[in-house]
Amino acid sequence: MDQGSIPIIILDWKSFFQAMGLMPDFLSLCHEFPWTFLLVVIFSFMIFKVTKTHLVNKSKKYKLPPGPKPWPIVGNLPEMLENRPATIWIHKLMKEMNTEIACIRLANTIVIPVTCPTIACEFLKKHDASFASRPKIMSTDIASDGFITTVLVPYGEQWKKMKRVLVNNLLSPQKHQWLLGKRNEEADNLMFYIYNKCCKDVNDGPGLVNIRIAAQHYGGNVFRKLIFNSRYFGKVMEDGGPGFEEVEHINATFTILKYVYAFSISDFVPFLRRLDLDGHRSKIMKAMRIMRKYHDPIIDDRIKQWNDGLKTVEEDLLDVLIKLKDANNKPLLTLKELKAQIIELAIEMVDNPSNAFEWALAEMINQPELLKRATEELDNVVGKERLVQESDIPKLQFVKACAREALRLHPMEYFNVPHLCMNDTMVGDYLFPKGTQVLLSRVALGRNPKFWTDPLKFNPERHLKEGIDVVLTEPDLRFISFTTGRRSCPGVALGTTMTVMLFARMLHGFSWSPPPDVSSIDLVPSKDDLFLAKPLLLVAKPRLAAELYRTNEI
Fold first, then answer.
1. Alpha-carbon torsion 407, 409, 414, 415, what sign?
2. How far apart (Å, rounded) are the C-alpha atoms in residues 126 and 446?
3. Are 549 and 191 in contact (CB under 8 A)?
4. Does 491 reside within a domain?
5. Which pLDDT does position 2 carry in this prediction?
6. Which pLDDT value is given to residue 44?
7. Rounded mean pLDDT of 516-538?
8. CA-CA distance, 106 to 98, in Å (whole number)?
9. How many structural domains is the chain composed of?
10. Which end of the chain is more exposed for a tag (fewer CB within 10 A), N or C?
11. Could you tell me the residue range of the domain that residue 380 belongs to?
């Protein structure tokens, strides 16, 4: 149903309940009787509807895209809560409505999901300045330690400051080259780890390799080596694999990723945050405690080393952050900013490469001609007497096409990070009010049949064009990898390198096949997210000389 012109009412829920004499004693009862509380909330909404003319701060008519008819005050919150997860419900709703842009009212928040690349470019190219902010919600408040980092932070001076640090000091071309040796160490260790796994006898047969674990921990290892100059938080593992501490750390990272922007009810009815009705708050806070448990002692000790004169040479990105100075030669970053930004870097570095490779390898096992073509390209470019190096990447066009196709067809998340409208903005035929949240569908953009032929087929060939280098960026938003505009990812070089090296080393170093009792891989995503429903388990066999897999670096 087309919502047409509808009134937008700005509500102050906390003030409303205070005015009704329901705080704080009322909220203290909510923990004991949560469902009674929800009934009282609904009753309160009814009262508020009667008295809303006296409590409205602003009322204005806007022309908005079509969407489900909202309930008074609560909008489409009942439908969202009834159809979990909300990400799948929104995509199903848009398919039923046969629309590429929709309007969903969640209490006082207008959410605009978009599935068309052309419309997406209207928001992030033509009107990028208006949609360059982020919403302030519970999950990002916790994950960014009060909005002091970069990716999750609303547009403003803090975001500008932290983005300058990323672009100029951490992710610049000079720093990328400076850190080449550390990235190589982790690419070498990946080979060492897989070699040990695939050569290990299990029940008189080759051991299986869990591709998800290998790929995720490659990302975690690169993060730890670049930031802390170490692969391990705890005991060094002889086989090159993760120990307990590294497993706990990477699991916490993916927990934060899962619950950031996860449509928590408290994001739309803020006074419910204290109740944590869906459990998101407690899960994110627990994951953040784990991250800090491992990060903070290293950071505190490193700062002490610099202050005591025990350290004088920058060796990793933590050193770089500590030594940054402002115009008055004072530390540029507070300790809180430094620690929060490092956690955000961990979140941003581990997700896309590992998910893309697991899905791509599963697809290529089911289409062995693709696996054969990739390994032939690697053998032609690199040979079998040495390992793939980053300098080989420009020549690995088909391998890059496989990575690009995986990012298109199998994104890590349903939606990109939300873009918040900073002022009333006309986009096409619609007028969006300040505060509107725009969600670009990573799934639907990459599978839009108007822009991709046979969109559900894994076909790397579609990205190969004569004389044109294959890249993992997509500025026209036909799929989302590093997005575009003011809020685009500043780590394109690092993200591309990590992804392609993961593909190249794994495909060049080993031949892959399903376990003996498996004929093909079941390409089914999980019910709650976009991972493969079951971690990919494959048999690996070394393709190169044994000495190439050995490493003593930790």
1. positive
2. 21
3. yes
4. yes
5. 47
6. 54
7. 93
8. 21
9. 1
10. N
11. 163-549
Give the burial string for 1-22 (b: 16+ CB within 10 Å, else e): eebeebebbebebeebbeeeeb
Q: Which two tokens stand for residue 48?
A: 């508020």
Is 127 inside a domain boundary? no
Q: Is the dihedral of CA 246, 249, 252, 253 positive or negative?
A: negative
**Hey, what amino acid is at 340?**
A
Half-sphere exposure of 317 (CA within 13 A, CB side): 29
Q: Could you tell me if residue 6 is inside a domain?
A: no
Single-letter code of the amino acid located at 225: K
Q: Name the β-bridge partners of 105.
A: 110
Residue with token string 């448990």: 293
Q: How far is CA 459 from the centre of its chain?
A: 24
Does residue 59 belong to any structural domain of this protein?
A: no
Residue with the two structure tokens 């391990």: 232
Burial of 486 (0-12, 13-18, 19+ CB in 10 A): middle
CA-nearest of 135, 137, 139 to 257 is 139
Cα–Cα distances (Å) from 328 to 169, 303, 324, 332, in that order, read 18, 19, 11, 9
Kindly report the pTM of this predicted structure: 0.89
The CA-based angle 47-48-52, given to 5 degrees, is 130
Written as six digits, the tokens of 95 are 């398919």
Q: CA–CA separation, 500 vs 246, rounded Å?
A: 23
Beta pairing partners, 205:
202
Residue 200 belongs to a domain with what CATH number? 1.10.630.10
pLDDT band at 458 (very low <50, low <70, confident <90, very high): very high
The Cα 284–Cα 278 span in angstroms is 12
Average pLDDT over residues 144-158: 97
